[in-house]
Write a structure and sequence with these properties.
single chain; 586 residues; alpha+beta; 3-stranded antiparallel sheet; 53% helix
Amino acid sequence: MEAAARRELGTVAQALLQRHGYRRLGFVRLSDYARERLGISARALQAAAWVAARLEVLPAVATAFDRSDLSWTQVRMLCATASPDTQLEWLRRAAASTVESLEREAKAGHAAAAGPPDPDPDDGAIDGEPAVRLRIVCPARVRALWRHALALAARVAGEPLATWRAAETVAAEALSGRPVGTAIADRALLACMRWARRTRRAPDRVSCVDATLQHAAPQQGTPQQQGTPQPMIARQALPRTKPAADPFALDAQLVAAMGVIRTSEPRIGRLLRVVVDHHLQRALGFPSVNVYVRERLGISVRKAWALLKIERSVCRSAEFGRAYADGSLSWVRALLLLPVVERGNGAQWVARAGAVTVRRLADEVEWVLQARDALGDGAAYGTSGEAASWSTLDPPPLDAVLGPVTVGCRKMSPEAAVQIGARLEDRAVLEVCDAEVAFVGPASVVALFRDALDAFGGGGPRWVAVERCLRHVIDYWESLPGHRDPIFARDGWRCAVPACSARRNLHDHHVRWRSRGGGNERDNRITICAAHHLHGLHAGVLRAWGRAPSAVHWQLGVRVAAPPLLSSVGDRYCEALEESPATALG
């Protein structure tokens, strides 16, 4: 059911992408639309659209998928490799081989494929390199420095950054200002060389996995012993709907398809947890959970472990578990709430997730975690430093101004950082390492980050080098000259339109246009990206009125004789309101 719903999702998404319909809905980026309206990543939506487009030119593969002869993973492999002339041959290979061997053959035959590559491959690599996890235990205050450095990296880059990309930016900045006389190691070069050797040995590794699958089956004799995969369980076929021409109708179809996926994913995660907790994959003849997921479930390994992660967390709060199970809590929102949801605040966070945009929810979760790391687990806090009536991990008041959290940064040169690091070593034995700095990234990026830590090392625990490195980078970035217009700093150096993630090409926009009598007061000016300014407000797709920065009424997806797609005050959802005549006429 989940795979069939993804094909339905891809069919409609294909029409939306071809016409750039999300722009008519008030979004200038596909990633913002997918995250806010569907609760998935842009890559997942593009991958579904790519599969739907490829199945249109591969009718035999599409028919086999509709009959449940192929899993979603197998379909994506064949779509990347098969052509209309070779699709029958690839179907015979898929019926007589395991997913691992089919993947090996598909990679070998991809060069001759007629279609474009998969936009979201599940090959365990990032940017063509093996994914490596870096984990360094540290005091909570060092993790607060880490979060602050990641936020500054996104501002410096002018765009949202994945954690590993922000870590790469931090490492590059640290190495450029390393202490005099410090040598740089060659970890990044060695990591690339190891990856090249591993790639050359990949066929031997895959052959070993195939042999294990064929000889480790149960005594009853499963199809794995005969070299053929077990048939997929027959599923109910979803009705094929023709994509509409109107972007608003396409949005409704996409939301309906995602409703089916949201209700099926919790069931998959619940059953998969039973398999993993009791090691049932071994009784079924599979050497590992990853192999079992790819061979039997036909979903990506990273998605399976994410489902397990959420499933193990629903026991913290009954309200969180119910919202996730009935589909009212999207995939993106559920993952955002995992670090902060506990037994006493689950209902509050679930209510907050339904009241604000994903962008605001991410800001609140990040702010709460930053405050906990900087102030401690038992501290009560407020948004402006005053005494507060809520405690750590509880959501802040609705519409509260999330001011900066002091993390104890001091301006210093690289040489001074090394001297302070020496004092840190003296008291390092007295500090409790109750947190960690961790991210998953390409092998070369992890190696580059370790090189930066070596440059700011000098003995003592590893987290001492992390603190020296972060203090130097934060000090440099915060010392850069700011823009003379204070509006950009007030709005956090990003577009203020709800759900927009733009951080570059920013404009200072007058909420009440100057042609309608608006002045240059700060409460009449707000930061907007160029795309929303020129193609949203001035094109009539977006409306804005009120007082900046937090009392601006926004309407996205404005249409005639119908309510807008999304209405909000700041980042808080609200009922659609009409602009007052006084505001409209200035």
